[in-house]
Amino acid sequence: MSELNPMAINSLNKxxxxxxxxxxxxSIYIFPKVENTPSRRYSAPIMLSEKFFRNPNVTSPEExxxxxxxxxxKKSFPEYIYDLLVGxxxxxxxxxxxxxxxxxxxxxxxxxxxxxxxxxxxQLFFDPETNTLRLGVKNENTGRYESVVLKVD
Length: 153
Hints:
With about 150 residues, the protein is α+β, with helices and mostly antiparallel strands. The protein is built from 3 helices and 9 strands, in the order E-E-E-E-E-E-H-H-H-E-E-E. It has helices at about 75-85, 95-100, 110-115; strands at about 10, 15-20, 30, 45, 65-70, 75, 125, 130-140, 145-150. It has a 3-stranded antiparallel β-sheet with strand order 7-8-9, with no helix packed on it.
């Protein structure tokens, strides 16, 4: 397995490609070390159940509420992610990178956007130097994703 494959699932320290073949998209997996498996000869991915995260009473993302102690108000989950992203909330445990793929590595060039437009939708990058947020938004007229840069106040 090649750790240079951008589609590979890499170890947390990015030194080992745990999987570089398809089939793992959209789910959460644990790849135990061989020495931590019952056989101690090979490892197989373990898919985690996402049932824990599901609530039948929640029918839209806006209904997921978090509490902001400082302001004394409830926030939606997307608002919490935004606050983590732009630094309004300290991310002491590195939870943002577990919740959502983000960072300058998600930026897509115009040339690549023409070839693989679906990648534009995956952009989520906050630049603290320019205080701007870059993300991909679907243009309802063309059906294609476009890069949008927003100034953060």
